[in-house]
Specification:
By secondary structure, the chain is of the alpha+beta class. The chain is about 15% helix and about 30% strand. The strands form two sheets. It has a five-stranded antiparallel beta sheet, covered by helices on one side. The chain has a four-stranded antiparallel beta sheet with strand order 5-4-3-6, with no helix packed on it. The chain is globular.
């Protein structure tokens, strides 16, 4: 769904932190970390190879929002903690502030995103695990971040027809978590979760 005509609002799963739209060049760097220009070109070519009109193509960059995260104390550095499941970084994901030490939930696949919002069963947030796994930078393996997320809305616009207009931002289908590594300054979103 093309979201460029909508006012970007953070999904409610980010309500426990301060979420702000990042300034350039960070915004572009996060978008490129999520989907590079090469990937966009291949995606466009595939769209046209399938016989679809070039005018109906929507770039991944037009279907996403980016958010820089900070603790409510004002600190913009911390660790992104998840669970290690089958040697993969998994949800629930928490942000542990590097200054005040507070840890807050920022994403849980059981209640957040398209599947969490449309689940027929009673949705219940998972308990925060006793053992957590810090998201590592793919460049230097550091675990301290200026955290950010990328959320995408890649469904058809018709799918959102039944979604309350004030809640569209909660029905994302992918969330990628990362930001800027404080050690090597690489911008990356290595924690990615399909939500639809």
């Amino acid at each position: 769904m093309r979201i460029s005509d909508r006012e970007p609002l953070p999904p409610r799963c980010l309500a426990t932190v301060v979420a702000r739209a990042p300034e350039e060049p960070l915004r572009s760097a996060l978008m490129t970390a999520f989907a590079s220009e090469e990937e966009l070109t291949k995606d466009r070519e595939k769209h046209e190879r399938l016989g679809r009109s070039p005018t109906t193509y929507v770039s991944t960059h037009e279907e996403l929002c980016t958010w820089s995260l900070a603790c409510t104390c004002g600190e913009q550095t911390g660790k992104l903690l998840g669970v290690r499941s089958n040697d993969v970084y998994a949800s629930p994901v928490c942000f542990a502030c590097g200054a005040c030490g507070k840890t807050v939930d920022i994403f849980d696949a059981t209640v957040d995103g398209w599947n969490g919002e449309t689940a027929r069963k009673q949705r219940r947030r998972k308990a925060r695990p006793a053992s957590t796994f810090a998201l590592r930078c793919p460049g230097c393996k550091g675990t301290s971040w200026h955290p950010a997320v990328v959320v995408t809305y890649q469904g058809e616009a018709d799918n959102y027809a039944k979604v309350p207009p004030e809640r569209w931002m909660d029905f994302f289908d992918v969330i990628a978590i990362g930001g800027t590594c404080t050690k090597c300054e690489m911008v990356a979103v290595p924690g990615s979760f399909e939500c639809a």
